[in-house]
């Protein structure tokens, strides 16, 4: 029952869900339902192989070559070349004794080998298990044991971490293949536990004289077991089907087409959002299915702006922490320009912001700043936590790029809400539903959230074909996660008048201050984070303290400029410790709270200013 028309409107059904008095109306996507373009597309490998057949000579995956120890230009492999490599890797995996429905771990940062390994698993009905490269040996050990991983394909620098797990994982893990080289000492260490360790070239040779027919894939097959972060206990293995991924790919493509942002073979994508997260994987597969080129960063977040300048991508998919780094980098670029350029920018920016949509031709995209990201970016997709609206608007104005906030979970197979690009008022929301998914809000009366009120609030509940199958080895948690077939996300949402959804907090993170109301810290972080003096903010409180506090990453340029005007001459680290600077921030936070008509207990009463940016973890 799909709907059409204004993409920012979602018309709910009239009756509560199944007569449940705690459930609000069902909402569905304003876009037509999206199915796979071919009924034979039952697995992600089918989507990939169709793209390889359609775009054989088009460049597909690229990485920067190293010249004299420094990153150089991007070098590319074509769709056809990579399809053949996937078949070789698949034969090597099978040559190690991994059978259909076996478990293969993939451990490392985004790289061509990561994507190739995933597709090789898809081809042979082998379940891919991402091993998060940021988690360390203990978490990797837990995942290998829980999912019974027999083969691990691993980034070269992560081999020492993986070897440290062997005393506890040797009963399951029998083979390790490095994406690069291995040392004789590492091989000896593995042999102690009867584990075979191969270099990448040696591993590929295992399938050289062997041929394994590709099996018949089913949409009910488990494509991947993706572990949640475990922030509320041990990480849970989320079992995701072939059908869930294929439908997610189709739904995202349909959504982008419906908002006049179709993906094409001319697109270039920087794959910085982790492939180990289901959203990063699905979005990369959406790009590949459209014939786009996917480039990989050569280093961590610190090199992100440099990689973007070299790759010149048209599409970025990033977490808010990466976009804050890009935002700060562009601000620094402006600050380093001469006085004339800074004055022109200061006059041009607010004018273009005020006239963005009626007069989009004005000021020629603020060319100076746009070139800082290669000059070609047309679409930025923000995944994860909410992006501060001032950052979203800045990037939209100076880059002439649509900035889309998305929302999804591992259990929903990635993004199920995407904001509409032609609506400036949508920053702060996660936009509208993608096709093939239903959503409703569930009242949480003990916290004062009513899904049937004039402004509906409640826990976001989801159903549809993209939902996960179950939690691995945790039938109890699987049953607990569902209510009459609806997956309960644990996130608290608020329906907006235009039909979009705003995430205002998490059920597990909401707390009550003594003798006061409930606090949703994520919601407050969105509000306070709009201050241009703030790059990132973390709001904290608990049920034993009477007020809220915050840790803030201040904007370096803004703070130093204010300090200069205030007659305070110190370096940035010292300014963050200065009581006068802290007092200024508290005053600014109080102004925001009053403007937004927050309750008294939602005011921030103390701050810690941290000059070191929050890291990804």
Automatic annotation (TrEMBL):
Pfam families cross-referenced by the UniProt entry: AMP-binding
One BP term from GO: phenylpropanoid metabolic process
GO cellular-component term (any): membrane
Enzyme Commission number(s) of this protein: 6.2.1.3
Enzyme's top EC category: ligase
Keywords from the UniProt entry: Ligase, Phenylpropanoid metabolism
Gene Ontology molecular function, alphabetical: long-chain fatty acid-CoA ligase activity
InterPro entries to which the protein is assigned, alphabetical: AMP-binding_CS (IPR020845), AMP-dep_synth/lig_dom (IPR000873), ANL_N_sf (IPR042099)
Domain spans labelled AMP-dependent synthetase/ligase: 49-472
Pathway per the UniProt entry: Phytoalexin biosynthesis; 3,4',5-trihydroxystilbene biosynthesis; 3,4',5-trihydroxystilbene from trans-4-coumarate: step 1/2
PANTHER family attached to this UniProt entry: LONG CHAIN ACYL-COA SYNTHETASE 4, LONG-CHAIN-FATTY-ACID--COA LIGASE
UniProt name for this protein: Long-chain acyl-CoA synthetases (AMP-forming)
Lineage summary: Eukaryota, Viridiplantae, Streptophyta, Embryophyta, Tracheophyta
